Predict the 3D structure of the following.
Amino acid sequence: MKHLFFMIPLAAALLFGGCNNTDDEGQPGRADLELSFEPITEKPNIGDVVTFQAKLFNRGPLAADGVTVENTVPEGFTQVGDINAGGVFTAPPVIRWAGLSIQPEETITLSFTAVAGKPGGDIGFTHSAQVTASNQPDPDSTPNNASGAPKEDDEAVLHLIPLAGEVSLNFKASYGQDPLVMFEREYAYEDNMAIKMQLFQFYLSEVNLLREDERVPVMDVGLISFGDVYTDEQALAGKSSGTLVAPPGNYTGIEFGFGLTPELNATIPPDYPLGHPLSENYWEAASSYIFFKFEGNADLEPNGEFSDKLTFHVGGNGNYRQLSFDKPIAIEDEKELTLQFNIDLQKMLVDQNTGEYLDFRQVTQSHSNESPSATFLADHVAEAVELE
Ligand SMILES: [Ca+2]
Ligand SMILES: [Ca+2]
Ligand SMILES: [Ca+2]
């Protein structure tokens, strides 16, 4: 009687295990194919060559021939290479290994390399792989039916984002101590004149983070415009470059061009889609983009009437200025950092050392890249911009 007490649970356990095996794994007359990715625990750097390994396992009991495995390479990885086991990349983004034969209990490693790209926007970093063909029926999965997240054991995904932090350049504009706002506010100018703003904007190009002997590019081009800044609150919030991706690290500073590099300035708006910063602000007669614009109205008499229109549009390769700022900048993986810049329009219009200034009683517009007023403004950009 005592024996029976122990025998019943044991028999039940055996039966249960057998049932489980028949249901799930290794049904007679079939080949249970399973696919997984070898985990990658260390994130790569942007630009690193990464080796991916998918493991195809046959849980048996029969051998399978004519097995095909496909891996879809996400947009975030490029320059696929070193595909082993006869795989081909003839129909990107899919790498295909066809005609594989795999014995019971055998594992075949399918590997390839790809270069990690820059995260951002909707760029995906998830490799998805699946068995798409087999000459044997599989007890718990069907070839080529993957959709989205893996639901069967013949499907696998590997998500791998490279090391990347985020940085944005935020610009606050002022006129001397006063926040720069459009239209309403009056700014006292030199020699009893006064001005009101209508527009202030500028291009940024070739933004690079700096570290020992290295420039790390974070942005090609951007347009910062204060044209819709109407309140002090908006002025104090500033205008942002938008979020830029940067490799983590300790940098010694940042540099950017105020205006456009000669390379960018050699292009024209039709080269760009609508909405791109370079799809506008071109000056055909000068074959140049307008690097920056200052527009407003001046009261010259002074009599309280702002009747003189100020239009200073400055372009031309000779007025491109590269600015560099020394400051320790630590970019950390998955963290966001804002670099706060201030730009003081007064310092562009009035030389802080000599007192020399653009005299609006003499000149109210700049429509030539070589005009003294254009050069004066460009020459004072470096003085006007500071990194907090
Ligand atoms: Ca299985
Ligand atoms: Ca299976
Ligand atoms: Ca499947």
Summary: Helices lie at 2-24, 232-237, 262-265, 345-349, 372-379, 381-384. The chain has two domains: 29-159, 165-387. The pocket of calcium ion (ligand 1) is lined by residues 25, 32, 34, 59, 140, 153 (CB under 6 Å). The first strand starts at residue 31 and ends at 37.
